[in-house]
Amino acid sequence: MRNFVLSVTRNVNVTVDYISSPEVAFLQSIEARFRRSATKLVFRFLGPNDVDPSTNQTYDSLLKNLTFIRTFASGIIVPKSYIWPVDANLYLLPSTSVVLDAHKEGLEVFASEFYNDVPFSFSYSYDPVAEYLQFVDNGNFAVDGVISDFPITPSAAIDCFAHLGKNASKQVDLLVISQNGASGDFPGCTDLAYSKAIEDGVDVLDCPVQMTGDGTLFCLGSINLIDSTNVAQTSFSNLTTTIPEISQGSGIFTFNLSWSDIQSLKPVISSPQSEYTLFRNPRFKNAGKFLTLSEFLVMAKNASSLHGVLIGIENAAYLAEQGFGVTDAVLNALSIAGYDKQTAQTVMIQSSNSSVLMKFKGKTNYKLVYQVDEDIGGAQSGTIDDIKRFASAVVISKDSVFPENTAFLTSVTDVVPRLQAANLSVFVQTFSNEFTSQAWDFFSDATVEINSFYAGGSINGVITDFPKTSNRYRRNRCLNQGSKTPGYMSPVQPGNLLTLVTPAYLPPAEAPNPYLTEADVAEPPLPSVAAKSPTSSPSGTATSPTSPNGQPKVAACVIVPLMAVLLAIYLLF
User: What distance in Å separates the CA atoms of residue 246 and residue 356, rounded to the nearest whole number?
Assistant: First the structure.
């Protein structure tokens, strides 16, 4: 190996900047040859308990003698855990003094073992840019370089994001809307998730409204409590039922419990990528408390950094048939909170039902947002005209902008430009940090994905469960550079990566997503709120309705058939 290295460096057509090795004796043997050369020798540390064969010392032992390392090397490569160790649960521990100690000896430090598609510390919220910044922008020290399988990410982290500061100005007009607060870090729709979203710089804080059995409006990402609470492990588990109008499977629904019942439940953090064993912030998986809509509005109103709030309403027609007037209750809550008489914060009402938005149309100056609840490949002109009658913005899926085939981008649709041509803002959902939620084209980096949808897809806003990532993106110094934009801040080209796949391994072609039609959007008006139907007690048994005299109505249902039987016998005989 020594002879090979020396022969390569003698080639005048070859420039060798660095030579690294984990063997002390090898670097010592060539040190004299490169003493006056521009080529730098770098000693590579392996695992702490691994042994260097030439000195018979562990690398942990050699790390304690950097003065010795300096005699034959000008730098060291260390695994990132040597600098920022993690505990058994994958949370960051305090940094070591390795970088400062090495710099004191005149050694450069290069950190290794960075991978975007391998789980790393939960402290980074699955954001690889955040991990790199921890090594170059932590206020105490900075490594001199990193070794990565995904060079696009550290290049952007160092050049575009390092040392931005919390008050860096926005470079682009991209609205950041939360999904259940910062639900990537805390259980969704809890006080902690909402506080984190505000801290992380979200523009619009969202509250998907649900209704309890006693008529309390509160924020929760799903009407099915099983999705975001521990209700299935409680005494309420016997309330499981199936309601085809709401969902295909069974559930325990919010309107089957009182607000006090729901307050007794533990929140459960969402982990949409758990099938890949990617779980979110397990240390806080049951932390926080749920908020009523009124409490949410108070919190939002006290957050001066917020641009506005978004209230999501689903299943309104079914709830009205059960005696719950959710739309009127939302209007009343917003009025009581003073949102109908202020202009400091925008109020958005979002629904996948046009009938809900028509209910709000003309009654308020709230911004109405129509959510398309399926992947679409386009929209008919008449459909867009219909949407304009009741909404000023549309929420679509990522696949409706850049269609995918087995996680490869295949093309770009005309959905965004056509909606925007009709003066409809376009918000896209859902942007998550976990690399398995992203197409291969984005190099397992959430920032690359966001940049591609903004710079390449021209969207107006993102809906995200990690607001910090999107907020940081729009402040980076590499935006608005025109022809000087670095390659690592250029949007990916849909379909380009797929062309590199060997023909034999290409995925089979898929049918294009359907067009959104007028029939998909048009709905009859919301039904009137029915008289409230019998509710279920926490034990799961229905409370029998009573007649005006206080007797259960079910008794009459038994007496009437009995009288009919007696009359039939009398007529026969």
Answer: 16
Question: Both tokens of residue 124?
Answer: 């980074």
Residue 70 corresponds to which tokens in the numbers above?
């300096």
Query: Percent of the chain having pLDDT more than 70?
Result: 91
Distances (CA, A) of 510 to 378, 393, 404, 406, 408: 16, 29, 9, 10, 12
- Tell me: cis bond preceding 469? Omega within 30 of 0 counts: no
Half-sphere exposure of 209 (CA within 13 A, CB side): 33
Q: What angle do CA 446, 494, 518 make, to 5 degrees?
A: 95
Provide the pLDDT confidence category of residue 572 given band limits of 50, 70 and 90.
very low
Are the beta carbons of 355 and 317 closer than 8 angstroms? Answer: yes
**Tens digit of each residue's pLDDT (9 = 90 or more) over 285-306:** 999 999 999 999 999 999 999 9
Residues constituting the chain: 573
Q: φ and ψ at 31, to 5 degrees? A: -60, -45
Summarize pLDDT for 311-327 with one digit per residue, the tens.
999 999 999 999 999 99
Strand partners, 209: 219
Taking 60 as the threshold, does the pLDDT of residue 537 lie above it? no
Strand order in the sheet with 145-148: 18-21, 40-44, 75-79, 108-114, 145-148
Using CA atoms, how far apart are residues 205 and 347, in angstroms rounded to an integer?
A: 10
Diameter of the chain measured on Cα atoms: 125
Tokens of 171: 């470079």
Could you tell me if 219 and 296 are in contact, meaning their C-beta atoms sit under 8 angstroms apart? yes
pLDDT in tens, 41-97: 999 999 999 999 999 999 999 999 999 999 999 999 999 999 999 999 999 999 999
Average pLDDT, the chain: 91
pLDDT value, residue 545: 38
Structure tokens at 525: 């008006």
φ, ψ of residue 341 in degrees (nearest 5): -125, 15
Pick from 85, 31, 88: which is nearest to 60 by CA? 85
In sequence order, which residues have a C-beta less than 8 Å from that of residue 225 and are 6 or more positions away?
231, 236, 251, 252, 253, 254, 257, 262, 265
Using CA atoms, how far apart are residues 526 and 357, in angstroms rounded to an integer?
Answer: 10
Dump strand ranges (E) for 204-289.
204-211, 217-219, 241-242, 250-251
CB 356 within 8 A of CB 521: no
As given in the structure block, the two tokens for residue 227 are: 């999705």
Read off the pLDDT of residues 153-176 as tens digits, 9 standing for 90 and up. Answer: 999 999 999 999 878 999 999 999
Token pair in block for residue 498: 């797929």
SS3 assignment for 120-155? CCHHHCCCHHHHHHHHHCCCCCCCCEEEECCCHHHH
With residue 175 as reference, give the H or E element that holds it: strand 175-178
**In 11-51, alpha helices (H):** 24-31
Phi and psi, residue 205, nearest 5° = -95, 130
